[in-house]
Each structure stands twice: as C-alpha cells, then as structure tokens.
Amino acid sequence: MSLTPSHPLPAGAGAGAAPAAAPKMPSQVPFIIANEGCERFSFYGMRNILTVFLMTSLLLAIPEPLRKGEAKEIFHTFVIGVYFFPLLGGWLADRFFGKYNTILWLSLVYCVGHACLAIFENNLRGFYTGLFLIALGSGGIKPLVSSFIGDQFDKTNRSLAQKVFDAFYWIINFGSFFASLLMPIFLDRFGASVAFGIPGVLMLLATLIFWSGRRRYVHVPPTAAQDPHAFLKVVRTALLARRDGEGRPGLIIAALGAMLALGSLAMSPQWGFVIAFCFALVLLMFFGGVGAWIQLPRARGVHPDEAVEGVRTVLRLLVLFALVTPFWSLFDQKASTWVLQADQMSKPEWFKSSMMQAINPALVMILIPFNNVVLYPLLERAGVKLNALRRMGAGIALSGVAWIVVGGLQLWIDGGQSVSIVWQVLPYALLTMGEVLVSATGLEFAYSQAPLAMKGVITSFWNLSVTIGNLWVLVANASVKGESVTGYIQSTGTSVTAFQMFFFAGFALVAALLFALYARGYQLQNRYRD
C-alpha cells in the first residue's frame, strides 16, 4: 500500500478544472497519539515484569514446581480481564457518556490501579485489586481510543486514516519498547514500588495530555440509547418474531446456548470462575449469533433494511474475529511462556529474561513503515493485492511458524543443550511480522466495517477476541494437569512445555486456513462518517 494516496478529479472535471484540495490531517490527532504512547508505556511497563515479579516475589509461598503454572494463570487471567472490559467501555460510551468522557473517567481508575501495585507490592489482596483496576481502566478505554481516532476523520480526509492508524500502532510499540527495556532493570535495581510506580506516573501524564485536547476533538454523541434500530434490538426482533405456519428455530438455538451457558457457569467449582464465565460468554455469542442469522429476515419491516444488513455485517465480522482468537493465544504467551523459556537459556548476567520482549516493539516500529513504503507497493507492482483480510490470514499463519521454531528450541533445551537466548530472536521476528499483519490491520478494519452507531461496541468485540485467545491458554494449561493427558504427552517423548508449543502452532495454522477460506466470500465495507 502506497503512502501517497491518489485523488482522481471529480466526474465531469476537465483538464482546466482546479485540482481537488489535498486532504487535511486533523490537528487534534497528535493529542490522541501522545496519550496512547504514554498509556502504552504504563501498561507494558507493568505487564512485562508481572510474570517475573510473581515468580520472584509475590508467589514465593507457593512450592517452586507449582509456581510457574500459577504465575502463568494469574498473568493470562489478568489479560482476559483487560480484553473483556472493552465490552463495558464500548457499551457505556455508545449508550450513555460518549467516547471522550468514558476514556477520561476510566483513565483515572487506571491511575488508581497503578498506585495500588506500587503501594501493595507485598500484599496479595491489595496487589490483585490493583490488577483488577488496571484491567478495568485499560480494557474499558481500549476500544474507544482507536475508534475515537476514527471519529476525527470524515469522507474528505479518510484517505489519511490508515496512516494515522499505523502511527497509532507505531506509538504503542514505541512506548512498549522503552517499557520492556527499562522496567526489568528498575525492578531488579530499585524494587517493585519504583518499577510499578513509574508506569503509574506515565498513565497520569497520558490522562493530562488527553484532557488537554478536549476543545479540539470531534465528539460523536452516543446514539445507541435513542436508536430503535440498534444491533441488539434488531437481534431481539429477529429471534422473537413469529410467522404464520412457521416455528422459531433461531430462538430455540439461542435458548439452547443460554442453557449451555448456565451449565458452564455451574462448572465454576471444577473449572474455575474465569474459564467457566468465558466459556459461557462464547456459548451465548455462538448460539445467539446462529439463531439470529437464521431468523434475521423476520426483522425486515420492523427495522429498515439498512439496520438489518448492518446486523448481518456484524455477525459476519464475529466469525472472522473468532478465527483470529488462536493468534492471540500464541501472541500473549510471549510475556509468559517465552519468558519462562528464556530463563532456561544462556545469557549475560546483566540481561534479564523479560528484556527479550523489547525486540517485539522494536521490530514493529521498523516493520510498519517498511511494509507501507517498500513491501506493500512492491507486492502491488508484482500484481499481488494485499487487502486487510489477506494480511490478517498471513499473520495468523506466521504466528504458527514462530511457535514451531520456539518449540524446536524447547526440544533443544530439554535435550540438555546450552541454548543461547539469541536464538529467540528468530521466533520473535516471525511473531512480530504476524502481529503487524493481524493487529495493526485489524484496528482500522474493525472500525471501517462497523455501522456508525456501533463503532465502540464492534471494536470491543475485536478486543474480546484477545480474551477468548487467552481462554484457550488457560484451558490448555488446565488440561495438562490431568493424568491421562500427562501420560499421553510422556508417551510422545516430549516435555509438556514442548508439546504445548507444537499444539499451539498447529492450532494457529488450522485457524489461518479456515480464515482464508471464509475471507474469500466476505464483502469489505467502507463505513466512515460523511
């Protein structure tokens, strides 16, 4: 994709017509970009040292053989919360307060969460309260900041939107790079209070920067509360509508999903609340979506065709988002499974295992401009058109290849070899290329496909795919605790860790194939405001 958009003359314009005015970049965008850079430093600053802190300090009372599993479970439960609360943030913004107010207020909650981590470094309850508040604040604003950027554009300058979304993702990784590099050093030299306190200061700065631009922003008012044709209202009409001589098979399917969801919640004592709740959510979305799809034509007449087609678009999107979840299963384990693998590798004494994560944002900052300026134009000249869906499918496949490599390294380690941590650079490079293709593309894709009244909510569903991806990690970790599964893994001659790595690689490659097949029939939309 070229960075220089083409602007054809309007229909009927002759050679002597005045050239169309070049699209203008909104002056308020730098406030949002700067806010995001500071906020991402604060988030990744605490996130990237969380596993190490749990292993070396907060969970010392747990026997060492069980500590790794407990640290991974806490980490991925926290990530599940971070990417679940976008549903709440999107709902509040779309229905009641608008994006700006919701971002500002939840950012203050976010700051309090950071303060709890710094104050309660030796108190389990206080520390977990801080994690909850950060998950609520960070998750609640997550879908809104990216969609708030989209609100600053209209059809006169939307050609610049993809550049800004790329810049948005670039600044995320700028903040993440320095956080990943510095926070492990601060944790080691100055202790947890300083290491968790500095990200809190950056989050306060992010909030002040965002507030400073308040008079410049385009504020799209919340519409869902007044919209009689909102997504859930159309779905409800479709499920409940009757037709003479016909049953309601869609309603029966949706009701089955509700009963299965209750059954999942009833398994909380055996599975744990987080796994049971997330499975219940998946069941409700899957069966409710299938039921609504079957009976969606019944909503016509009660709701305009445009609203009904908008719901159909969202349901198609949810299928794509579901197929992206395996990517997040792999990607988020770089801060848990890959850090624990790095502990087993040879490295200089001064180098901390969690510092390897700085490679990821450093490569992102290089790859985004490289792709836009060099790779995408080169491919287009060669006749290969990489639209959003093709990029995302290729990114999922690359993540699977990265995990094949990291699984090979684990086999090497399990064989008693001394493996240099430098070898992890290769899977990091593959995973990062996959991330650029999936995540950076997905931000703009999710916004551009959503009907106007549901920008925040559909972006929340995009973030929810990360929650479901981390659910698969918790399920995989829980399954290897069973004797039958452990016995089978031992019969293969590989360690549990290596077996899981190859399992996740296969999981992603199958998802990439299904994504490519489904994407072939998907019609891309262009839903920017006028």
Automatic annotation (TrEMBL):
Its main location: membrane. Pfam families: PTR2. GO terms for biological process: oligopeptide transport. It is a multi-pass membrane protein. It is found in: Membrane. One of its GO terms (cellular component) is membrane. This is Oligopeptide transporter. GO terms for molecular function: peptide transmembrane transporter activity. Keywords: Membrane, Peptide transport, Protein transport, Transmembrane, Transmembrane helix, Transport. PANTHER family: OLIGOPEPTIDE TRANSPORTER-RELATED. Belongs to the major facilitator superfamily. Proton-dependent oligopeptide transporter (POT/PTR) (TC 2.A.17) family. PROSITE patterns: PTR2_1.
